[in-house]
């Protein structure tokens, strides 16, 4: 199992609920929703649109281009036109640091 990697700080979320980071060369969108942090690959599986500016609704992010929805926890595609999941990452907070690793 891969180790957690520090990708951000809790302080990075003072002015926004989202942050673009990289994990092993993969563009990742880190989101702060309620009390939880989620990390998902920042590429829609339908046609490659970054999900960066997608609205968050009911635990899902909506692709700004054609409206596919992805579950923030599992990455599952919840509606057309996307059919494949986006990759997600396990997130932990330790001492104000945000760490992530690929879901096993
Ligand atoms: S590129 Fe995301 S729904 Fe089409």
Description:
With 104 residues, the chain is mainly beta. The chain has one domain (5-102): 3-layer Sandwich (Rieske Iron-sulfur Protein). It has no helices and 9 strands. It has strands at 5-9, 18-23, 26-33, 36-41, 55-57, 60-62, 69-71, 88-94, 97-102. It has a 6-stranded antiparallel β-sheet, with no helix packed on it. The model has no long low-confidence stretch (mean pLDDT 96). Residues 5-100 form the Rieske domain. InterPro entries: Rieske_2Fe-2S, Rieske_2Fe-2S_sf. Pfam families: Rieske. This is 3-phenylpropionate/cinnamic acid dioxygenase ferredoxin subunit. One of its GO terms (molecular function) is metal ion binding.
What is the gist of this entry?
It comes from Gimesia panareensis. The protein has 104 residues and is mainly beta. The protein is built from no helices and nine strands.
Helical percent range? under 10%
Indicate the overall shape. globular
CATH architecture: 3-layer Sandwich
Low-confidence stretches: none
Text of the CATH class: Mainly Beta
Structural class comes to mainly beta
Mean of residue pLDDT?
96
Biggest β-sheet description = 6 strands, antiparallel
The structural domain count equals 1
CATH topology: Rieske Iron-sulfur Protein
Distance between termini?
A: 7 Å
